[in-house]
Amino acid sequence: MMILGALLLAAAVSLVAFNLLEDRIAGEKAERVLVKLKEKLPEGGSDKPSDSSGQAGESAPVKEGEAPREPEALEIDGEFYMGIISIPRLGIELPVTRDYSEENMKLAPSRWKGTLEMGDLIICGHNYESFFKGLDSLTSGDELIFTDLKGTEHRFSVSYTELVDGYDTEDMMSGSENWDLTLFTCTWSGRSRITVRAVRNE
To answer: Domains plus CATH for the chain?
Structure first.
């Protein structure tokens, strides 16, 4: 029993060490991409959203029956990024990949569903110290900023937070008439998602 206990303890310590290493590596990768992404963005940007033609102005509406357009993206080190998410209260500024995958999640937070244009953008990120670990500390009124590839800052205010079951995709996507941006990350158990809903500032 003592040997078994020692083995289990060693496995637990190894797992913690691995997670910390993975967290640090992910943070370093994201920081390098962030620097490169910022170098490619126009300085100052525009005070208006970009339309589908890439020119500053009001977003062109999606016609009835038309599928939402894929967000524009820039390729950096073989992956496509659609912008930068900033959470001032947490001191977080991170690139966002356009396409969700397990591999991309190790690089940066990723667009899970939706678009900025349609007001239903959902961004997921690992519960890393350098990513979305502090989401559960956000409260109503905290600011979120999404900077698009034109350098335009889209500002949002946290409306509310909730726990969503890890397998309940419908619940995660529901209620978009009440929010414009969602960020989420896993709880430590992985069974639920800490979910932050935010509304666009006028």
So the answer is: 2-49+71-200 (2.40.260.10)
Structural contact between residues 176 and 120, judged by C-beta atoms closer than 8 angstroms: yes
Nearest to 105 by CA among 83, 132, 87, 86: 132
Query: What is the value of pTM for the model shown?
Result: 0.79
Please calculate the CA angle 53-56-60 and round it to the nearest 5 degrees: 50
Number of H helices, E strands in the chain: 3, 9
Contact 84, 141 (CB under 8 A): no
Q: What is the torsion angle, in degrees rounded to the nearest 10, for the CA atoms of residue 124, residue 91, residue 134 and residue 108?
A: 30
Mean pLDDT rounded to a whole number for the chain: 84
Q: How many CA atoms lie within 13 A of 64 on its CB side?
A: 0
pLDDT of residue 70: 80
Cα Rg, the chain, nearest whole Å: 18
